[in-house]
Amino acid sequence: MKGRLILHCALLNLLLPWPGFGQAAFALRNRYALYGVNAPVFDAQGVPLEGTNYLVELSGGPRPDALTPARDDTQSRIIVPFGTQGYFSYGLTEVFIPTVQGFGWAWLQVRAWDARLGATYEETAARGLGGYGESPLFYAQGSQAGWTFLPEPLIGLRPFRLRPTTMAVLMRSIRQQGDQVVVEWNPGFKWYQLQQTPALGEPWQNLGAPTTATSVTNSISGSAQFFRVIGLLEAPAQPPPPVTPPVLMGGICREGLSQVVVEWNPGFKRYQLQHTPALGEPWQNLGAPSTATSITNLISGSAEFFRVIGLLE
């Protein structure tokens, strides 16, 4: 009887679902030679990140604007330190995306930061001092958490850099001059960024562009403001050109003698179909943006290439 009771308990334990069961699972590692994954992470100067001073986690979701941190089987966020030469690894232990079903496709992004500036990516970013960064968005298929399948590699992950780390500057004075306020600070950096906030604890907002000056004059607003100056260790980086995430095509097929049907997978709010007579030539919009995931067009007299651009808004 005792042995039978133990057996029944073991079977019951196997049948009970664990929190991540049935959700898309991935391997949290940026070097996986078997699958061609090799995406080291660097600081702003191009030095590979190393050691426990730098942390990383995976975020994902069904849409590029709906990313959530990856979890383990206890629903805890998985944050791991870097090893050497810009690489990190959580081994073969799976992490899963709570909002994507098992074997589903997910929009993914790897996020890294300087642990000396914050315990999480969000905390570090909110400080406004740099020292954090994220990979370009990529679209990958997961395995299923809770089964015997190996977690899927991060196919599509690319190398990236952290933003330059900045430092607070010792303020010299803040004084009123007529209907204007003059903010002055001590030298010591190549560039400076003046920031303001209506209340301590609220996010800091840039006030104007970075400058090499050590003072700035601004009009007084109608409400109280707090000011600070951030010292930049290098010239402000130019923002990268906006990246339009690709859309995974579903199929292109002929319908009758005179029409072509183009289909694509969902994941964006709207879509723009484009065509070109030859690869390397400019892409032209074909019709207006649409919320549909397919479109039917007349066949022209010459060969055409098609693609679909996903619009986040």
Keywords:
four-stranded antiparallel sheet; Immunoglobulin-like; 26 strands; mainly beta; 313 residues; six-stranded antiparallel sheet; disordered N terminus
Describe the structure.
Helices cover 7% and strands 42% of the residues. The chain has 313 residues and is mainly beta. It folds into 3 domains: 2-161, no CATH class; 166-232, Immunoglobulin-like, CATH 2.60.40; 249-311, Sandwich (Immunoglobulin-like). The strands form 8 sheets. Strands 5, 6, 7, 9, 10 and 11 form a 6-stranded antiparallel sheet that branches. The protein has a 4-stranded antiparallel sheet with strand order 14-20-17-18, with no helix packed on it. Strands 8-1-12 form a 3-stranded antiparallel sheet, with no helix packed on it. A hairpin with a 3-residue loop joins strand 21 (249-255) and strand 22. The chain is globular and about 75 Å long. Mean pLDDT is 84; it is low at 1-18.
